[in-house]
Amino acid sequence: MPLQEDLRQLFLLDQQLRGMRSRLDSATTRHQRQLKKLEQSNRQKSELADQYKQAQVKVTGLEKQAAEIEQRITTLREQMNTVKNHKEYQALVVEVNTIKVEKGKSEDQALEHMTKAETLKNELDAITADVLAQEKLVVVAENEVKTCRAELGKQLDELTAKRDLAAQELPTDVRVTFERIAVLHDGDAMAHIILEDRKNMEYSCSGCYMQQPIERVSALMSRGSQITCCASCGRILYLEPELKEAISPTK
Ligand SMILES: [Zn+2]
Q1: Pick from 127, 240, 250: which is nearest to 193 by CA?
Q2: Does domain 12-168 fall into CATH 1.10.287.1490?
Q3: For 8-39, how does the pLDDT look when each residue is reduced to its tens digit (9 = 90+)?
Q4: What is the 172 CA–ligand 1 centroid distance (Å)?
Q5: Contacts of 142 (CB under 8 A, 6+ apart)
Q6: How far is the CA of 12 from the centre of ligand 1 (A)?
Q7: How far is the CA of 208 from the centre of ligand 1 (A)?
Q8: Where along the chain do its domains lie?
């Protein structure tokens, strides 16, 4: 096989490998993201549960206080029936009125805290439902990772072996150049020629879309054993078999 074809094969295997790995990577990322979200919701849930508990304790305390005040008022009213003079009676009236104000305050506060507790309860119910839904999503994401691993594991190993073999078949300097350019372009060491305009013989690079001189395309047609790079992005250029066939002068 001419060098150009060997390189193209290696490039295609590389692309397949990256596609496979990215499927597994994105499944793993999704799983981790779901886990993190669940963790956040659980934290929020436990904070709300604490706040709700505190609000309930407060309400109970205030209700108890109001009941105690009520009891004192009853006692004072009974005393009023047994007083001996007007002065004592007046004093009791003043005391009862003062206590009534206190009772009103307690009741208002209890109501306020009850409203607060109710709001917290609603929020707690909502986050509890959220947590349940998220737990299900975590399981789905986890299964996806497992399925992906099971499906891809063997294929990945096989493809990696094939890819490594294809790389070994290349001359060392070519392989080194290929790997170096791949690193520069996120794995895309190569780019194919795009036919822009047949009549005006306009071609471009699929990596950077810069126009390519006809001489470069001709070199690719005739010199199959040499590396031809895009002068603009540096990727190794190749001709898709279909294009090569279409622009072949013998045709
Ligand atoms: Zn280019």
Answers
A1: 240
A2: yes
A3: 999 999 999 998 889 889 999 999 999 999 99
A4: 23
A5: 31
A6: 18
A7: 4
A8: 12-168, 175-247
